[in-house]
Design goal:
Layout: E1 2-4, E2 17-22, H1 28-36, E3 54-59, E4 63-67, H2 78-94, E5 98-106, H3 113-125, E6 129-134, H4 141-156, E7 165-167, H5 176-187
Parallel strand pairs: 2-4, 2-5, 5-6, 6-7
Antiparallel strand pairs: 1-3, 3-4
Bound molecules: guanosine-5'-triphosphate and magnesium ion.
Magnesium ion binds near residues 29 and 42.
Length: about 190
């Protein structure tokens, strides 16, 4: 629908909205394409840091999906990074129709510094999120279970309660139904 450099340019907040955020290259655009069933809705690239705008998609005339710029991209300078952190924070704090955010993390990796910072920021602000593990097709069931358990142990060092967790793969479609079910359920609670 639109690409915004700033949350003030985002579409009128008339529909419930769900944001997708994660480290650059975590598989956000692939996941968005997988859950919407559109192969090329969000641009996928092998070059990290492709999504630099807040991209809005209107789904079924019912809800907004917001693809947020990836964080933690090493080749982005300090100044640029601060600027983007401000854009994303303003959006997350100011977007009145935001129902929840999906924070995507790579199932293959231990908790990354930038993920830890983002998750803690959400916790401190009291903003609802769901943790989505991506690229699970690259791991055995056992490896996956171990990695998720380690992640949760990390989180429990700081938080009493664990966020909801969804396992996903844009290759196999794992997680699609669960994400859609969550969104459809939450849509019922939206008051414009
Ligand atoms: P930026 O917008 O650049 O920050 O990246 P992104 O988070 O949108 O990631 P994108 O969807 O562009 O995917 C990055 C790379 O990971 C691509 O090469 C994808 O093909 C690959 N990828 C994404 N999701 C999956 C997945 O579920 N399984 C596997 N095996 N590869 C994936
Ligand atoms: Mg992307």
């Amino acid at each position: 629908m639109t690409s915004s450099t700033d949350f003030r340019q985002c579409p009128e907040p008339v529909y419930p909205e769900y944001a997708f955020i994660g480290r650059s290259n975590v598989g956000k655009s692939s996941l968005i394409n997988m859950i919407t069933g559109k192969k090329a809705l969000a641009k996928i690239s092998s070059t990290p840091g492709k999504t630099r705008l807040i991209n809005h998609f209107l789904i079924n005339d019912e809800w907004f999906l917001a693809d947020l710029p990836g964080y933690g991209y090493a080749r982005v300078g300090q100044r640029e990074r601060k600027k983007w952190a401000k854009v994303i924070e303003d959006y997350l704090l100011g977007r009145t129709n935001l129902m929840s955010t999906f924070i995507l993390v790579d199932a293959r990796l231990p908790m990354q510094e930038s993920d830890r910072n983002v998750i803690h920021w959400f916790g401190q602000q009291g903003i609802h999120f769901t943790l989505v593990f991506t690229k699970t097709d690259k791991l055995s069931a056992q490896q996956l279970a171990e990695n998720v358990a380690k992640y949760q142990t990390e989180l429990l060092k700081f938080w009493e309660e664990l966020p909801p967790v969804i396992l996903s793969s844009s290759r196999t479609g794992l997680g699609r139904d669960e994400i859609i079910r969550f969104i459809v359920g939450a849509n019922r609670h939206f008051r414009p």
